[in-house]
Design a protein that fits this description.
heterodimer, A: 265 residues, four-stranded antiparallel sheet, 14 strands, disordered N terminus, B: 408 residues, eight-stranded mixed sheet, seven-stranded antiparallel sheet, 16% helix
């Protein structure tokens, strides 16, 4: 079901710039900002290429990498070349909108603990934006985020959009060690660190859900296009969940996956 | 020339006297400066944030594997900067080193220099030592039938996510790598081991000492010839050769001067370089002020040269993150990336521009050259390989008695 006034978000091929990323990759760039329309264009092209690959076309493509506003095609230069690929991709792009392109979008609800000790930067952020701790939490909590892309670390989701009043640039001094599961914000994005790692974003809470497991069919839990909402839990509940979710047989989908939708928004 | 001791350097009974009933292992007695299990890398998971990893020198991986009869992209041990010591256990282990490294085999107290670009069979207790490099800093050590479990389709090590390798980590002292025993016809044959039951592999003390050095002579199952292999003409190391670049994808984020600077200056490899990236010292590359020094993150590949705000270029390598927020001024062409990765700290680097069409031609040429090189691998002839013990030859009584030609 489409929402009135959202015609701009219909999945339709947008024009792109083709940029060489060396001799083994070609980046199709759809724009220069982080927003849902551009991401939809990226995912639409990705879906068309996936269909073409499944039909035996586009021989030589190794994989595709969606990012905020680009889709990069990785190819084997001994099997194909950028001219051949670009020609085929341009024809795919011109072949008109396709209902089947709408990917399933999953909605997740992920637990988050905002308690002191789990949210090292929450008070500083609240102070910076001139709101109470509670109101700051509400701002972060009451938004449904879209997963724009995975990167930086395996399973690490870049999600948006943070409400304008909560937007801050990255910290002046990054941390050398951010605890695993930290939920962080910077500018218009929020993210979750699957492992301990260096990081320069503001840490607002912690989420116990494992975001990457090589034993799963799809090793990353989240995919570009997924929707994520957070639900607050106490420190005690966090610790229980953290313990429970370490077991391989914990059914994350049963607990955290709310539904699947084909809305084109 | 090495004698064949009954006891190895720990004073225990020589393992080679035991029947080869236990699968061979390779102990990492020392990982040296840095050593990881790598193959060609794991493709297909970049969209989940998983870097490809894999060896920085795929050409050396293929040569090393060909020398021991492994498939071309079989996992091997990628070694940096020397200091590695690997010890064979339980059964003979065939290895080869591709790279301009200095090597020794140690048996007991004795160390003997051996050649790279050639396979060698380590007897149980023997140690392979990489003592340093003639050129470059990377060597690939292949092990016949090395067995390392794969994760997401590859045995390549990516420690940040504990993928591949041994328990997802770089190799450390005490680690043991498994060698898979191979079934051959109706016999169970371990690499270099005996096929006949009851044969303990004991070496006689008479005869050429070459049989101890090469190992393969005494360990060859009867009727089955398993010679070592070598590359008659190892590849050349050409430090003066420029590294070829294709501009972009964000070349337009830089002043035109930056593009000229990159190809007209000498850069040097910075010490703070690793498998994620090679930092370069040299003239700053200035960003176009209208564009700034950051981009909305997009995908990177190994060889992409990103330039953060300080203007210092970084060549991204196999373990780099899959997406990045710094503009990329150029990308190293794929046939030149291995060569670049093998440069050492302070080595000079010069770049030159190339277009995509030329790069494709260069890739095909490089592939043809590598295939021809691997096809030139020859067996090591035993007379060629053995060292003749002249004193022993002259002092031995080779004739058991005088022969009277006139006797009936």
């Amino acid at each position: 079901m489409t929402h009135s006034g959202d015609a701009s978000l219909q999945l339709k091929p947008l024009p792109f710039r083709a940029l060489d990323l060396g001799d083994t990759a070609l980046t199709l760039e759809f724009g220069n900002r982080i927003d849902p329309e551009l991401q939809s264009a990226v995912l639409a092209m990705d879906a068309r290429i996936a269909d073409a690959l499944a039909s035996g076309e586009l021989v030589g493509i190794v994989e595709t990498v969606p990012s905020f506003r680009s889709l990069t095609l990785i190819f084997d230069p001994l099997l194909t070349d950028r001219t051949t690929l670009l020609d085929k991709v341009e024809r795919l792009s011109a072949s008109g909108p396709d209902q089947q392109q709408t990917p399933d979008r999953r909605l997740w609800t992920l637990p988050i603990c905002y308690d002191t000790g789990y949210a090292p930067d929450l008070d500083d952020v609240a102070c910076s934006i001139g709101l109470s701790r509670m109101d700051t939490i509400d701002l972060h909590l009451n938004t449904e985020y879209r997963v724009y892309m995975l990167g930086f670390l395996p399973g690490f989701p870049f999600m948006g959009d943070i409400p304008p009043t909560l937007r801050l640039p990255r910290r002046n001094t990054p941390r050398t060690r951010v605890p695993a599961g930290s939920v962080a914000i910077a500018n218009a994005l929020t993210a979750i660190y699957p492992w301990e790692s260096p990081g320069g974003w503001h840490l607002l809470g912690r989420c116990p859900v494992p975001l990457f497991n090589p034993a799963r069919d799809q090793p990353a839990l989240l995919s570009p296009g997924d929707r994520v909402r957070f639900t607050p839990v106490s420190a005690q509940a966090f610790n229980q969940l953290d313990e429970a979710m370490r077991h391989q047989d914990y059914d994350i989908e049963a607990h955290c996956l709310q539904g699947v939708s084909k809305d084109s928004e | 020339m090495m004698p064949c001791p009954v006891f190895n350097d720990t004073g225990q009974a020589d393992e080679s006297l035991e029947p080869s009933s236990t699968a061979a292992q390779l102990e990492i007695r020392s990982p040296g400066a840095y050593a990881t299990v790598q193959d060609r890398g794991r493709s297909g998971f970049r969209r989940f944030g998983v870097p490809v990893s894999g060896t920085l020198q795929p050409e050396l991986l293929r040569i090393a594997n060909a020398l021991v009869g492994n498939p071309p992209f079989h996992p091997a041990i990628e070694c940096f900067d020397g200091g590695q010591v690997f010890v064979a256990h339980h059964a003979p282990v065939r290895v080869a080193v591709a790279g301009w490294a200095r090597l020794q085999i140690q048996r007991g107290e004795h160390k003997e220099s051996i050649a790279a670009w050639q396979s060698h069979t380590l007897q149980p207790g023997d140690a392979l030592r990489l003592t340093g490099f003639e050129h470059g800093r990377i060597a690939l050590v292949s092990v016949e039938h090395l067995h390392v479990p794969t994760q997401l389709g590859s045995a390549s090590t990516y420690a940040r996510a504990a993928l591949g390798g041994l328990n997802g980590q770089a190799l450390t002292a005490g680690d043991r790598l498994s060698i898979q025993t191979v079934l051959s016809a109706d016999k169970m044959v371990a690499p270099g081991a005996h096929a006949q039951t009851g044969d303990t592999g004991r070496t006689t003390r008479t005869g050429h000492s070459a049989s101890c050095v090469s190992g393969n002579l005494k360990d060859r199952p009867s009727g089955q010839v398993r010679t070592e292999k070598r590359l008659p003409t190892p590849p050349g190391f050409f430090p003066q050769q420029a590294i070829r670049l294709i501009p972009g994808p964000q070349a337009d984020h830089f002043c035109q001067q930056a593009v000229e600077t990159l190809s007209s200056s000498v850069y040097r490899v910075d010490a703070a370089s690793d498998r994620m990236g090679m930092r370069l010292q040299g003239p700053q590359l200035l960003h176009d002020p209208a564009q700034g020094s950051e981009i909305i993150s997009d995908a990177i590949v190994a060889g992409a040269i990103q330039v953060p705000g300080d203007g210092k270029p970084i060549v991204l390598l196999a373990d780099a993150q899959t997406v990045g927020g710094y503009p990329k001024i150029a990308t190293v062409i794929s046939p030149d990336l291995g060569r670049l990765s093998n440069r050492k700290t302070d080595d000079p680097i010069q770049f030159e521009w190339m277009d995509n069409l030329q790069a494709n031609a260069a890739t095909r040429l490089a592939e043809q050259a590598l295939s021809a090189l691997i096809a030139s691998i020859i067996p090591v002839s035993t007379t060629e390989h053995s060292a003749i013990d002249l004193p022993a030859l002259y002092s031995s009584n080779l004739i058991s008695g005088m022969v009277n030609a006139k006797a009936p």
